[in-house]
Amino acid sequence: MRQNELSPAAGSRKDRKRVGRGDGSGHGTYSGRGCKGQKARAGCNMKPGFEGGQLPLIKRLPQKRGFVNIFRTEYSVINIDKLNIFESGSEVTPDRLFAAGLVKSARQPVKVLSDGAIEYPLVVKAHKFSAAAKAKIEAAGGKVEEVEYASAANQATTSSGSD
């Protein structure tokens, strides 16, 4: 078999539709575009959802397309059962949690949740605590301290104000 003897499989290739070649071709007169209007003209490329200038449905129903709060604070969450890796009576800070690999980012504020149990007293410093997590830490004889979160925007205003 030679390269010039190769041919595509039967039915895999179709001739393109040649429009505007007379009524006998089946694609004459309006060439498959219907009668007059914007979509019958050349160069017509409308976005999906375009409704001819009418306010589109997607804008009329904003509650159906969701909402993203750009000012939302994303927390690194940690459950109290993970705090058992620290020694009894030690101080647990967001930096120590990051160093131990328990939270992924040192930039995000830390929130402590109450899943699991804590076996001995610890001094836990974090940005937020769930009420149940606070109760469990204090019931084990530990101490809870909320640290203020200094965001990047917050740090920029405080550092420029001290000059």
* Largest sheet descriptor: 3 strands, parallel
Percentage of residues in helical conformation: 10-25%
* CATH structural fold name of the largest domain: Ribosomal Protein L15, Chain: K, domain 2
Could you tell me the radius of gyration in angstroms? 33 Å
Give the class from helix and strand content and strand pairing. Answer: alpha/beta
Task: State the CATH architecture of the largest domain.
Answer: Ribosomal Protein L15, Chain: K, domain 2
- CATH class value of the largest domain: Alpha Beta
Q: What do these coordinates show?
A:
- The protein has 163 residues and is α/β, with parallel strands linked by helices.
- It has two domains: 20-67, no CATH class; 76-157, Ribosomal Protein L15, Chain: K, domain 2.
- It has four helices and six strands, in the order H-E-E-H-E-E-E-H-E-H.
- It has helices spanning 57-60, 94-99, 131-139, 152-161, and strands at residues 76-79, 91-92, 110-113, 123-126, 128-129, 143-146.
- A three-stranded parallel beta sheet has the order 1-3-5. It has a three-stranded parallel beta sheet with strand order 2-4-6.
Key features of this structure:
alpha/beta; Ribosomal Protein L15, Chain: K, domain 2; 3-stranded parallel sheet
